[in-house]
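Hi R.,

Here are the chain sequences for the assembly we discussed:
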Amino acid sequence: MFKILKKRELNEQVTLMELDAPLIAKKALAGQFIIFRTDELGERIPLTIADYDREKGSITIIFQKVGKSTIQLGSMKEGDSILDVVGPLGVPTHFGTDIKRAAVVGGGVGCAIAYPSAKALNNMGVKVDIIAGFRSKDIVILEDEMRAVSKNLYITTDDGSYGTKGFVTNKLSELIDSGADYDLVVAIGPVPMMKFVCEVTKPHDIKTIVSLNPIMIDGTGMCGGCRVKVDGKTKYACVDGPDFDGFKVDFDELMRRNSAYKNQENESKTHICRLTGGVRHG
Amino acid sequence: MANMQPTKTPIKEQDPKIRARNFEEVCCGYTPEEAVNEAKRCLNCKNKPCVSGCPVGVRIPEFISKVSEGDFEGAYRIITTTNGLPAVCGRVCPQESQCEGKCVRGIKGEPVGIGRLERFVADYMMNKTTAPEKIAPNGIKVAIIGSGPSGLTCASDLAKLGYSVTVFEAFHTAGGVLMYGIPEFRLPKATVMHEIDNLKALGVEIKTDMVIGKILSIDEIMDMGYKAVFVGTGAGLPNFMGIEGEGLVGVFSANEYLTRINLMKAYLDEYDTPVKRYRSVAVVGGGNVAMDAARCAMRLGADNVYVIYRRSEAEMPARREEIHHAKEEGIEFVYLTNPIEILGDDGGAVRAIRCQRMSLGEPGKDGRRSVSPIEASEYDIDIDCCIMAIGTSPNPLIRSTTSGLEVNKRGCLIVDEGMLTTKQGVYAGGDAVTGAATVILAMGAGKTAAKSIDEYLRGEGK
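And here is the predicted structure of the full complex:
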């Protein structure tokens, strides 16, 4: 059992939780993830480790309430315990050496995953720009945290209600065109966003790392549910990734595979709303 | 006087038409009367060929003679001196090539139903509480990585010798392939959990959610005071064919499909993990895993389930009984056929599998007959789901995070005859050493390793 030490609502949909998990906290590195299962009937869902405190023995997860399991996790309180947390899984992000200037691009809740990457780069002495995109002002998250680990923080909103109006890709293009000499771009967010970031960086040949989010079950390499095509080869995101060279990823296949259970997800969401209001009984 | 009936005492099974749509156990097991009748068929041979066929050396004629006397508890005590998982073995061992394959009664007629009797005894005792044996602890800690058949057997034997045993398991439930791989209708999960509870009663500690190589390394485990480590991590990395279309929606490894169903219980409404009910399913492969996947697909409501195998029925590695059960349940076998591409629709979902007919050649060096494609024999089978059951390889996680562990070309850990790896104090067994094999061979390896670990640790104490 893994106790919830702290819970903070970052916006209406996004929740931060600090979990008591000393062994995971001891080993976790930027780019790695955990798999959780709330209770005996639950499914196994992957979440990136957004932060860790080795001394306190805790890890931080930030998640968007998009379906049954995340809604259920979001309904748990400080002091409650989650049945299973497995990790740290996946390969830590390898940024490479001699990087002087980097752009970290986060989309929506992806900013929670982009944040530890920016922090790690900043700690390496890299000059980091963060471009964080949101639909509108009311869902902006982690602004102060991101500002603290970057030279420049650019916030974009689709509707222009905060920061610059437009998408992260517009801002990234603009910065590159105006002479920002990036050695590396890290893009984390919805699959279409990562795909479009790669389309911006490719003509300039700027190394671009993406963090993929396929469907996972075990997260340890024993099922291949998370397989993605990278450079024409099949890779398991849970053990070979989740980070990959963005120029080599087949994003279209990933998008198709991620929508495989859409109908069932929707059914289970409405199901739980109707019967139990999001709380599982017995 | 022995019962000289030439055939095994019949056993009750669920009707194929009914069972093909439920996950309840196919074989209902013997009643006490049937078990006694079958036990009386044993001739109690002096040289006991059956025992030599059992990888864990169960004292077969001794336990069977207790059954024939109606002393089922006595029979259980004899079995469990050498076998920690009798309810599992009685159900899933390929007895025809092991104990029963050596039975003298099999020369003229059918062999004694040893597996059925072992299962009967274990099931009979499941409802009785037995006081755990009192074992004096020796205070020496041993770590087991992986809680599949090899790890559980090794843990059981070491605990009975007084060692303080901790099992580290990556999944949220112990049991390995017994829980995620073999379906409920062949091996009820309550039975597996009961056998694991028996181990816990012996004092074995099981730590789940522990991916060794990530959360702790083997070196760190040894630093924590464990004097020896047994690696029983299996061969869980699924192989794909490498053909076009394997990235389509509706293509699964058998591991994924079976894990969703067996471990995550996706076929039950109250569980959150989804699995789809496909209309027409192709399972590629000819082993027990292929049979399990095909029979699960049928139980989830498929209209057609095809098992596509590149050799003929005679070469199939699956147990005869499983092939027989699968056929009874309406699964179609497509022999001498090999997939060359999976075809998708506009939305990226599977719509058909393109196959090529094969011809059988002469046996090769490994004794298996070679196959070669017949030219211009391509044809398509309409499907909406394809499950790859073409074998698994050992996961590289342990070897890549432990210095001094050597592996062969196939990624299997190299061990000596006592199951010692190339690293001092680290032993290994089961599929991690052999590649994908059987439950009982893994148990045999766990047993051998436990003996070696005991000798090693006693030697060190001197």
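The mean pLDDT of chain B is 93. Chain B has 17 helices and 16 strands.

Let me know if anything looks off.

Best,
T.
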